Amino acid sequence: MGEVQLLQDRLLTALNGLEGPFAIWDKDFHLVVSNDAFARSLINRQEPLPPGTPLEDFMRLAAHSGLFEDSVGREEAWAEASAKALRAGSIRDITRFTNGRVHKATSHKTPIGDTLVIATDITELETARLARESYARQLEQAHEIAHHQAYHDSLTGLGNRRFLNEELARLSAIRRQNGGHITALHLDLDRFKQINDTRGHAVGDAVLCRVAEILRNLVLDTDTLVRTGGDEFVILRHCTKDHTLPPDKLADIIVAAFWRPVMVDGVEYRIGTSIGLASTDVSDEADLLTDSDIALYKAKSLGRGRAQRFDRTDFLEMTELKSLSDELLRGLDAREIIPFYQVQIDAQTGQPVGLEALARWRHPRLGLITPDRFLPIAEDLEVVDRIDHLVFETALAECGVAFRSVPPPSLSFNISHRRLMSRGVVEAAQKASQYPGRIAFELLESIFLDEQDDATTLQLDALRDAGVFLEVDDFGSGHASIIALGQVSPDRLKIDRRLIEPVTTSSRSAAMVRAIIDLAGALDIEVTAEGIETKAHADILRVLGCDRFQGFHFGRPALLDEVLADWWPAQSSRAANAS
Hints:
Blueprint lengths: L1 H15 L5 E4 L5 E4 L1 H7 L12 H9 L11 H14 L3 E5 L5 E8 L5 E7 L1 H29 L9 H18 L2 E9 L2 H8 L1 H18 L5 E6 L2 E8 L7 H11 L4 E3 L2 E3 L3 E7 L8 H14 L5 E3 L2 H22 L3 E10 L5 E12 L3 E3 L1 H11 L2 H19 L7 E5 L2 H4 L3 H8 L7 E6 H6 L3 H12 L3 E7 L6 H7 L3 E4 L1 H4 L6 H16 L3 E5 L4 H10 L3 E3 L9 H8 L1 H10 L1
Parallel strand pairs: 11-12, 14-16, 16-17, 17-18, 18-19, 19-20, 20-21
Antiparallel strand pairs: 1-2, 1-5, 3-4, 4-5, 6-8, 6-11, 7-8, 9-10, 13-14, 13-21, 14-15
């Protein structure tokens, strides 16, 4: 008996030397023996459990000890489930304690039917494992963010050009397997650049985000919508015979949607969009995006605010256009852009009082090219201001020589908004004082009146200070208000030729022109009527009160020598003798 007791004491001493909880349960799951850590760690008691304690009683004590995270609030159910699991066979459980410690509990059956249960504190190992998993998740998230940034536009959240290329490859694979066609819709906002230039980049960015939102709501979930840069967007669609919304219909819906003003922060912006479409039923997949871009250019050249499809003839036209674009840049460097002049006549005396300098391109191979062919190209190349400047410089030099000894006519120049807002325009105007006559800048009604802001107003005031007269060109073609006209107070209005042409046959048109002339007179603004085609036009408009006439009835735009010969013959003779 003494030896048995000694063995038991030695066993307990050994068990108590274990850091983790240890217990032996008999075949009926009554406690045989346990170490001090068993009661202390699992039921928060300092004294050991007495032998014979039923498993269910122990589990109930453990559940109500507040030590086990999973048992809080469901103590009885947890105790019952845990006891049942241990009775059912071997366990390998990770147990989390409310004090932050983590144990791994395992059980083993002995040959005589006893069950040994031992728990090992693995808190440090678990902490290290969780840290590794957290780091791995952070790396994965960083990779996802980097991937998203690489394939998406940071402003609108849409896909970018790289994403577009991958989507085109994906749709190509689907097409090879399932048939159908891929259609690309290439969108360009018609008036975004003016908004960006006049309202600032912050407003421009907000407009782009609103445009992206509108497009998201119009396309299908299966479509690919990307922003390729600036104010350009592309939609890709895999089309099948049973497609409910054909691409051409989608294009019409988008164009119609942007006919309406876009609202941003309570302000309306009129943008408009042009769309070019290309499909693999005509274009090769490799050329799809290029061909949709060509179709977009066709839509813009036809007047914007419309959709156009690519066909084979468009490629030849684009090749010619590209060649002409390259030639225009070369021609600017070679100073092939020259001024032609159209005379302006005093309505009462019939004498020449002014010249409007108009750009013409004297091409060494193609001959004389008119602005309707090269100005749209110049706008796309953003060189209209260079053309304005070249015509301005050349005309000042030519007319400065031609009119040295006679009262000089006024010189009028068309000027783009880009040129108006450039740093050099005021300096150029100041240098123009070398010309003894009046210098006038003609600006489109929309630029002069619709898009007035502080920067434009300051620039116009600086030009006035430099001695430049300001004219509103094509008045009556836009939506200018009378209030804006009074605030800006230009020196002269030039009534749009579309209002002048019908005055000989329509009393209503004549009344409209008279109203404009009366309004200008009330504001002390002179009036020029352009588009005078016949003597009847001149007679009626003289009675209506116009100050100046301009049109083919008095002469077409021509070189200065020809204009001098027609209207200033003495000066023409002097120029001929001098040469």
